[in-house]
Amino acid sequence: MNKDIQSIVLTEQQIKEKVVAAAAWLDKRYAGKNPLFISVLKGSVMFFCDLVRAMETPVQMDFMMVSSYGAGTSSSGIPKIVMDLAEDVTGRDVVLVEDIVDSGYTLQRMQNLIAGRGAASFTTVALFDKPSRRKVDVKADYACFEIGDEFIVGYGLDYAQQYRNLPYVGILKREIYENK
Ligand code: PRP
Questions:
Q1: Atom of ligand 1 nearest to the CA of 104
Q2: 130: Cβ below 6 Å to ligand 1?
Q3: Which residue, among 136, 139, 134, 167, has the nearest Cα to 153 in the 3D structure?
Q4: What fold does the segment set 12-152 form as a domain?
Q5: How many angstroms separate the Cα of 152 from the Cα of each of 50, 77, 120?
Q6: What value does the mean pLDDT of the chain take?
Q7: Which pLDDT tens digit goes with each residue over 77-110?
Q8: Is the CB–ligand 1 distance for residue 40 below 6 Å?
């Protein structure tokens, strides 16, 4: 285990089981359709790749980079679009893939943006939902795990751009982010 991790909360196997279940839910919902899956970078990258690979429905993919945390552990409230989509979403069935819905600012911004560009439908799938932290009234249509207020890293989630490549999800030791 990485020396900065206090404890593992989800193993690779536990994540995989939930990702496969999410893929089955999406396969059912999008059978016979041509959905456009959008990965909200960078956090969702691992989840996104595993999710689309576990699906049978052919999907198209696009990427958007949105950032609101800087180097801290709480949202700035102003998600910044660092890199926009390449595809036109007009008339498309869009599936937004997020690693985590925390304050909800990022999801709200994405929802408004995609709806404003004329998507036919919009569904959000998140790996983690932290409902106790919500600041705005948004909800993922499907969340693999509902969690409390722990600061977790791994499987795409970072602290100061580190720990994203851990294959598991763990709680960071407090000393790593306190007094920084
Ligand atoms: C994280 C995460 C979500 C967002 C959720 O992204 O990937 O996109 O925050 O938080 P919210 O509900 O409070 O808006 P971050 O801005 O840290 O960028 P990253 O994906 O590059 O890590």
A1: 12
A2: no
A3: 167
A4: Rossmann fold (3.40.50)
A5: 19, 19, 34
A6: 94
A7: 788 899 999 999 999 999 999 999 999 999 999 9
A8: yes
